[in-house]
Amino acid sequence: MKLQEMNVGDLPREKMLSRGPEALSDSELLAILLRSGARGENVVELSSRLLKDHDGKLTGLFSTSLEVLCGYKGIGKGKACSIAAAFELGKRFMAESGQPRGGAVVTARDAFSLLMPHFKALDHEECWVLLLNGGNRLIDKRRLTSGGQKATVIDIPQIIRTAIEKRASSIILAHNHPSGIAEPSKADLSETMKLRDAAQICHISLLDHLIITDKEFFSFADERQYGI
Questions:
Q1: In this model, does residue 6 exceed pLDDT 60?
Q2: Looking at the DSSP assignment, which residues form a beta bridge with residue 209?
Q3: Are 162 and 144 in contact (CB under 8 A)?
Q4: In this structure, how many other beta carbons lie within 10 angstroms of the beta carbon of residue 117?
């Protein structure tokens, strides 16, 4: 169906103007980003096809590379960049809104809120660190390593070096489990204890180590048995 054949009130842009963005489906919002379709396919149909190819979920589309997007009929570099830019803006908005009130990172939930936007929908493991001053306020957050689907390296010397360079009084480590299971492995426990001991030697406190999935997180500090 051509867009001209659709009711004016059903066109994505007109629908947004009259009813607000929350009234639009995911495919309609995506259609506004794409602006035009492909030969034999209007922009709404193209958007629907794109989502269908990613299990109908925005998380699947989020993790799709620019190269793959550019390979779609009707999506060139410009449209692919528009999609990627929209997701990046959303991620940055979530990172800003996740800043704890008062600036201090006090709980595991505070740390999770700061880090979750960086881990959302990842299909591989990454390791991040929050660097905090003496008042538990955020100095910086850094991605340290990026690994495979089952493991990433916890580079203890790099973490300590980064903390010293930033003059951090304490740190919070985090990595994700793409499997969706937040429980720590034996390797996670071993590396956490090694990092805690190395940090103490340099008068830096390891406040927590979070294992993050798309739906939950595990906090070593909340589980007192682990000695953090």
A1: no
A2: 173
A3: yes
A4: 16
